[in-house]
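re: ur question from yesterday

yeah so i grabbed the chain u mentioned. its 249 aa long if i counted rite. heres the sequnce exactly as i have it in my notes:
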Amino acid sequence: MKKVFQRPGSLKNEPFRYCPGCGHSLIHRLIAECIDSFGIRGKTIGIAPVGCAVFAYDYFNIDMIECAHGRPPAVATGIKRTRPDKIVFSYQGDGDLAAIGTAEIIHAATRGENISVFFINNANYGMTGGQMAPTTLLEQYTSTTRSGRKSQIHGYPLRVAELLSTIEGTSFIIRTAVNSHKNLMDTKRAIEKSFRYQIEEKGFSLVEIISQCPVGWKMSPEESLKWVDETMLKIFPLGTYKDRYKEVN
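ran it thru and got these structure tokens back, copy pasting raw so excuse formatting
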């Protein structure tokens, strides 16, 4: 019988512990498939911080480093500069990258570090109780915005892809999602391109991935997929925000 499906070699044979409907497991698989397709498992180093992202070291069958909240771009910079032969990526949530780690991501982008960043945006702090994150939408309910996020109190959602695309040091900035088959395939192509740009030494890239969080959003998995399409993507439109080498390729 012809084999049509198998676990990527870059994923351990471990069951995911993520909540039902969570997008992290989907994204893990896409990253692992891309690592396998490039044949770079033995030279790839992943970096994950505090938050749901921290579980990545339980699932990826590669060298993984856990670091302090918000600091993956700084750790990635140190590793890549001392071992430029390695393929280095960070795997970060919105509470990590867009809040406590804002300085690290902006300055790594400004320096044009030759790393890949996979930024998971689920519009709340998923691990610690569904609190408001920098990416929480206006009027969105969270455990710390029980009447919805208000601009005059809490400010506005932070659009990371748009922000980083204005920085001269960045090469590839894109926003994708994992709430449909089409969006999953687009996300995989974006991850592949980010790795390829690093392999070709083309500089800093970030893939922002809109991911559903049914438990944090107080929704069923099916409702969360619909909410991404009907609500979240109006605030965080999908698309390529910067591709310095598009014409060349």
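noticed a couple things. The domain at 24-243 is CATH 3.40.50.970 (Rossmann fold). also The chain has one domain: 24-243.
anyway ttyl
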